[in-house]
Every structure is written in C-alpha cells, then in structure tokens.
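To whoever picks this up:

The parser on our side crashed when reading a file containing two proteins. I've narrowed it down to the boundary between the first structure block and the second sequence. Both blocks are reproduced below exactly, byte for byte. First block:
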Amino acid sequence: MHHITQLRTVSADIAKGLLVLKDRIEAAKVPSSRLDESFNLATWNIREFGRVARTQAAIHYIAEILGQFDLIGIVELRDDLRDLARVLAVLGPYWRAIYSDALLDAGGNRERVGFIFDTRQVAFNGLASAAFPRRVRKGDEWLPDLNWWRPPYLASFKSGNFDFAVLSTHIRWGVSEEGRGPELLGLAQWVGDKVTLLKKGRPAWTEPDIFVMGDFNIPSRKSPLFAAVTSQGLQLPSALLKDEFGSNLEKNKRYDQILHLPGYPENFSNRGGVLDFYCGNHKPLFPKLDKAKFTYQLSDHLPLWIQVNTDIDRHQLQEVIAGAGK
C-alpha cells in the first residue's frame, strides 16, 4: 500500500485511523492470496462513490480496504472518476480499473459498475461489455422485454491458469421488493441462456466459469428474490451460507451477493465473509462525523468476499484421462 511515498504523506489523525482500520481488517480474517494458487474476489457498494468528494482520510481508508482483495466489483461508482483515481494512486502502480459508462437519467442515478484489480494476481482477459437481455422482434425492430435500470457489466479475467468472467450489477431499489423481481429473473435468464449455449457445445466465451455479484437488494436468502436469481443454476458458495454475513452495517441484510456458475466447483476454498470496517462505531475513523455522513465517506455497505482456488491442473488432467477413455 502506498499511503506514504516521497510525494505523499498522511496526517497523524489519518495514521491513527489507519491503525484502527488495520486492526478491524485483521479481525475479519481475510486470508492472503497466493500466486498461481488463489485470489480474493469481493463486491463492494461504495456509497455514491464520486458524488460527494471524499476526504483524504476516506481515500486512504477505502484504498486500505480494497487492498485486501485482488479483484473487486465496485457498485455505485458515479460518473465523476476523480476520487477513483485518487484511490488507485494510493493502491499503487500495479492496480487497474475497468468500468462501464454512466447512465445520466434518474433511473441510472449517474452510476457505473467498475472492476478494480491487482495486475500482480489478476489479468484482464479482453471481454468488457454490458449484459444484453433477450430481444424479440416487434415490427421492424428488435426490442427487449426487460429493462434493467442499470445494465449489468461483464468482464473476463485470468488468474494463474484459471480463466473466468465476472458480471456485476446494481438491482433497482424501486418502490417495493416485488419490483426488483423482473430484473433478478432477467439476470437468471441471462445466465440460463449461457448455460444453454454451453450444453450445445457453443461457449459464450472462452472462460468456463462465471461469477455474478453486486448489490441485488435482496433482504435475505429466504426471500423470493433470492429464489428468482438462483432459478437458472447460479449457486451460493458454501463459505457464504452463514446468515450472519449480512453486508449492511448492522449485518442483518443480504443485499450484496456473490454467486457462481461453476465450471470447476472445487475452485472455492470455503473461505469468505464480510469485512466489517464499521464494528458498530465509526468514531475512531471519523471522530467529527455522524453516522449518516460517515456512510458518504466510507459506505453503508460492507465488502463481501470469497477466496477462489486457481490451481486447476489436477482437474484438467483428470478431464484429459476421462476424454481418452471414451
């Protein structure tokens, strides 16, 4: 982490806050990743990141949190990217960002979806695109029946010899939980269409595994909304099955999710959870702010993470042997 360099320093107050934050991060027990063996994947809704200018303290705190992971899907990244650039500068020269365009209407909330990744551990693999819903012909036009308020964003990556794709999204809040259902069903349908192509021997891309994550605005795993998004094969990693892994500050809601459509189910290390930077008290980090203002400096969401195994040599060799016996 580049909190202090020849061109940058921090105040004593920020240094004290960083030490508190490091203690909280250590308590979260996020394991270190290992080159060619594992990487840490996370999703984090950083509240309206780019709308309200972050203080210098917040920039360092956000960078410290992001630096615990190797690939992070950022939700609520706004059209103004200046604070993102400040965070990347603290993270260091080996970090990169890929992001979608911003939707400037009220439904889009001027939001982007972004991926931030450590190039020492994860490489961009070439694909970056919005996800497109099914279209049907209506007269002379091909039009979708579904309208995502904020289109999901898809990118492909490689870690070691493990190729994978990640789709991240921010499902509408809307006026009711029921209003989120069609977007979540559309997301499941999009995954189902990819599964159909794979079964026909026509892969949608070269990456056999896909992760689907982001802020789904699902209150719990018992909600019909969770059943909707998992109706076409998406699975919750076993490491995230515990109900205490709520991703709001109170840790009692499962708004954020990491789901998987596995090509290699053994890729999960059974390590995952939330990184609680809040710990019921924001004052050690921002002594002069109330809780509401604190959420606009850090967030009202906690990062949700899993560790993924990337050493798939054994599985690939077994596939070669099985194929030779046919």
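<<boundary where parser fails>>
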Amino acid sequence: MRILLTNDDGIHAPGLRALYPQLRQLGEVTVIAPMHEQSAAGHSVTLHSPLIVQESFDETGVSIGYAVEGRPADCVKLALLELLPQRPDLIVSGINAGSNAGINVLYSGTVAAAIEGAFFRCTSIAVSLDYENKPIPFIQASDYARQVIEQIIAYASPREDHFGGLWNVNIPDLDKSKIRGIRLSPQNVSPYIEKFMRRTDPRGRTYFWMGNDFACPEPHPDTDESLLAEGFITITPLQFDLTNHRTLNQLHENSRWKIS
C-alpha cells in the first residue's frame, strides 16, 4: 500500500513523526507536509507565490519526503500532480495537536488536506488528538490512530468505485481517562464560544488577538464533540458537497423562479 502522510502542524511536528512509523506497518509511506505550521489555514491554496519544495530527512539521514512552503491543500495537490510517481492508495493527515470536531472541521488545515485528497478520489483520513496538558501523548495516540485507520481501510477496500471516502478521526484527551471505545458519529454543529483579547500597541492603536479557548458549551448529544468529551474515539464520514439537497428539492417542488 502506498501512503501519503501530511498535516498542518508542519513537517517537523511530533504528531506527524509519531504517526510515521505506525503507518509504515501498513505500507510504503511518503511525507509531503508544510514547512511551517499552518493551523486554521482551512482549504486555502497558494496562488501568488511559488511553492518551494525541499527534501526532508529523518533523524538517521534517510529521506522521508518533502517539505513545502505552502498550505496543507497545496501539499496534497502538489504531491498528486507533481511529486509522487504513482497515486497513493491512502492519504493520512495528522496527527493534529488539538481536536478537529464540530465546526472546527471548516477551519482545519488538517481536514482540508484530507478533503483535497478526496477531490482526487483517494481514500483520505484526517486524525486529530484532543489535549489540555503538555507533553502531548502522541506516541500512544499514534497506536490508536493506526488501529482506527486499519479498520477504515478494511471497510473502504471492497468498494466498487475504488474510493473509500473521506474520514475525520478524533482521539480524546488521553490524560483525562482511558479510551472507552470507538463511536461512529455525526459532526456537531452547535456554536462555539469565541473570545478576542482587546489590546493597545505601543503607538496607541487598538488591535485584537483571538483567544485559544474554543469552548462548545452545549454540543448535541451523540455527536463528535460530545462523544469525544466522554472518552470515545470518534469517526465521522465527511463529504465536500455543501449543497443543501433538501432545500433544493423543496424549491424545485414549490417555487417558480423567474426574472422580468
């Protein structure tokens, strides 16, 4: 199995480095990841500057892939169109430092990299780890991640269209409690409480800095947010078709649109 490993925390991030040897148990792994951290980059791509690519090496001096001066989506797009001799069988993005559940999916560079792979009809999995305290237990989380990825692959492989889908995996805070199991869950859509810190710079100008506490006080039950908080690994199948088909069908049935 050919596996592309990427992330949004950067090629030197401990989450990626922890997941790399785990994925090597499943197949041949190539890393193509951002040179620097790209958290909350979403699905942005680079249009107005060149994408500089440098070969990256592990601690023993062995080449593991490439670092890209770009966004997570850039990395996957460049990998599939230019850098890899063959299309991968699997794309994994992670392990992200911090969960990507609920509406964070829309901001996440980690999930965006997986979505980009799904655009190309590659089975793509985003993996994130919730945490509060450091050091973050990436080694332990990577073992759980591999087990989940193996099960997703087992489901995806027999499909006739050769596309195993787009998956978002979140691992709960391992310092809080033991893993209670795995739950398939929908994405939570409850709003978050977000705060800005208002400050004044040395020249008297007001500026704002977004806080890092994205609390979701009332998540819907049995969604990725609530189950993650209860100690479950969550698996959410995603899609990038944002069409509201229910409303579209209702409009077709009940409305007549015209211009004069």
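After patching the parser it read the second block fine. The first strand starts at residue 2 and ends at 6. Residues 2-254 form a domain with the Stationary-phase Survival Protein Sure Homolog; Chain: A, fold (CATH 3.40.1210.10).
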